[in-house]
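Field log, afternoon session.

UNIT: design team B
ACTIVITY: writing a sequence onto a fixed backbone
BACKBONE:
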């Protein structure tokens, strides 16, 4: 009898190990929850239309959580196609046992997006001045990103986390200035945006070791720190009008500087500047 129980326990243990190995690697293909996932995601946001193909039931060992995994789904936001390579839908394990499944998190991994694709998608984004900035000021660039969307018990949007990187970005700041060869990494949720490791060039100066923090509650607070290497001579005709705006600019022949900069700007709810502070040393 003792040998029987030991054998039974060993078989159960081996079965569990095999199941965990399968779920955490290749997964189990299923279409049982397709309609449920489609219904819940479309219910969470009426502007999102999702089409799924093959779904695999898997186990995330690090988070000790079950999820559904599918590659190359078709996702449209307000009729604009989102270039997604992978989508994971995380489920509440207890809700699965009770046969009343609930989605806790949706993870989206996007293809590298070219600025031309972003401009098409941004037509449907809010606020409109953000859309205008993307359309009129950003000239080129590529974005790689991963987005996690968190839902509450009622399957409604609760929060999100976006992380990724931007490379080869070119932004028109003014008639005379274009930020070129710009790159940075970013992290964002519904209350904060953080840009790190900012590098950029704009003719007479180079930016390095830059960061920008945006706090989005009760208006917008922008805080930025960055280093600039500036080299100017009067042969750079594109910047002549900018230099002449200064009192002694017309007599300026040559200027070189290495500066550490700090900027703080407060915006109100309508994005108007309420207060700003700029400091530089070097």
């Amino acid at each position: 009898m003792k040998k029987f129980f030991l054998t039974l326990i060993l078989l159960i243990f081996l079965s569990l190990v095999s199941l965990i190995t399968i779920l955490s690697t290749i997964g189990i293909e299923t279409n049982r929850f397709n309609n449920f996932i489609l219904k819940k995601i479309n219910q969470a946001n009426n502007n999102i239309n999702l089409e799924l193909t093959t779904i695999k039931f898997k186990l995330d060992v690090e988070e000790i959580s079950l999820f559904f995994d599918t590659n190359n789904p078709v996702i449209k936001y307000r009729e604009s196609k989102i270039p997604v390579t992978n989508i994971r839908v995380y489920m509440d394990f207890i809700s699965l046992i009770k046969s009343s499944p609930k989605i806790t998190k949706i993870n989206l991994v996007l293809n590298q997006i070219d600025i031309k694709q972003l401009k098409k998608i941004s037509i449907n984004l809010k606020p409109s001045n953000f859309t205008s900035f993307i359309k009129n000021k950003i000239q080129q660039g590529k974005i790689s990103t991963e987005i996690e969307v968190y839902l509450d018990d009622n399957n409604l949007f609760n929060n999100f986390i976006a992380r990724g990187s931007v490379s080869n970005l070119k932004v028109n700041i003014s008639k005379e200035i274009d930020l070129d060869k710009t790159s940075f990494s970013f992290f964002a949720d519904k209350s904060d945006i953080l840009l790190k490791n900012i590098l950029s060039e704009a003719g007479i100066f180079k930016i390095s070791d830059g960061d920008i923090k945006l706090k989005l509650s009760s208006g917008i607070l922008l805080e930025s720190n960055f280093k600039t290497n500036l080299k100017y001579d009067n042969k750079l005709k594109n910047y002549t009008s900018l230099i002449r705006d200064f009192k002694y600019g017309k007599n300026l022949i040559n200027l070189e500087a290495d500066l550490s900069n700090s900027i703080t700007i407060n915006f109100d709810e309508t994005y108007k500047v309420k207060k700003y502070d700029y400091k530089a040393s070097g």
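LOG NOTE: The longest helix spans residues 2-24.
NEXT ACTIVITY: expression trials, pending approval
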